[in-house]
Specification:
Elements lengths: L25 E3 L31 E11 L2 E12 L2 H11 L4 E5 L2 E7 L4 E6 L5 E9 L2 E6 L4 E3 L14 H9 L5 E10 L7 E6 L2 H17 L3 E13 L5 E14 L11
Parallel strand pairs: 2-11
Antiparallel strand pairs: 1-3, 2-3, 3-5, 4-5, 6-10, 6-12, 7-8, 7-10, 8-9, 10-11, 12-13
The structure holds zinc ion.
The site of zinc ion (ZN) has 7 residues, from strand 8.
């Protein structure tokens, strides 16, 4: 039995459905814990071959996820939504999306929710350090394994020592399914190109498929040597299992479109 990640959307984990199968997988609103804008506590562990900048981390204004709350449950749907405590961020993003912010109880406190009407967001990503995957598993005593797939990230006594995870993501997934290994938590820090002054936002995902794409995206981001204009999308994945069962679920995807500077109209070549 593996432990789901507190504070991270399970929306992209199969088996699921959405409009594509006529069924909607549900996950609870309580999955969106820890959204609070606390820049000092946000994930700062880069992969070992990247340098972590020493400047003070910029505060996160809110968390993006995808899906829509219906009857108190978050349904996996191809629309982005922002959860934030910041009225300024909520109003700014709502204005960009052409919608109104809604008050939404999240884990016992009222937050502001802004739901887009589209599956894609045009975002700016500062660099490869803004997209990181950590691997975590928990047991009854708490965090049992915390690594980047190669070395431990915590506790301090084990940090930077080999963690024993397989190098192939497919093998890591197989171990996690058997309850013998950690699961990925990918964190993306982004800005909206339509409103870069609204600040920094976060998207976290426990999707294996998303995690599998991270290294390639990081390479593309590094090649641009500066902020990149990217498309953050929710995509439906549909396939038939070996026993004939039709499966459909949503997964996040990032496409790097090119360099970005504030003031660059989204979607235009520079
Ligand atoms: Zn590990």
């Amino acid at each position: 039995m593996h432990h789901l990640t507190p504070g991270v959307s399970q929306a992209a984990l199969p088996p699921v459905g959405r409009e594509c199968s006529g069924r909607q997988r549900r996950h609870t609103v309580s999955a969106h814990d820890h959204y609070r804008s606390n820049g000092a506590r946000r994930q700062r562990h880069a992969l070992p071959h990247t340098r972590t900048e020493s400047r003070t981390p910029e505060a996160v204004e809110g968390d993006f996820d995808f899906g829509r709350v219906i009857d108190g449950k978050l349904h996996s749907q191809p629309v982005w939504r922002l959860i934030t405590a910041s009225a300024r961020a909520a109003e700014g993003v709502a204005s960009l999306f052409g919608v109104e912010p809604q008050r939404r109880p999240v884990n016992g406190s009222e937050q502001l929710e802004v739901v887009s009407q589209e599956a894609g967001l045009q975002v700016a990503i500062d660099g490869p350090e803004s997209l990181t995957t950590q691997m975590k598993s928990w047991d009854s005593r708490g965090l049992a394994h915390h690594c980047d797939g190669r070395v431990f990230l915590s506790p301090a006594s084990r940090a930077r020592r080999s963690c024993g995870c397989p190098s192939l993501m497919e093998e890591r997934k197989a171990r996690a399914r058997l309850g013998h290994g950690p699961q990925p938590i990918t964190t993306l820090l982004l800005r909206l190109t339509g409103g870069p002054d609204l600040g920094l936002f976060r998207f976290r995902s426990s999707s294996w498929r998303f995690a599998e794409t991270v290294e390639e995206i990081r390479t593309q981001l590094a090649d641009l040597r500066g902020p990149s204009l990217c498309d953050l999308a929710v995509e439906a994945v549909e396939f038939t299992t070996s026993n004939g069962r039709s499966v459909c679920y949503q997964k996040p995807a990032v496409r790097v479109l090119g360099p970005w500077t504030p003031g660059t109209p989204a979607g235009l070549d520079t």
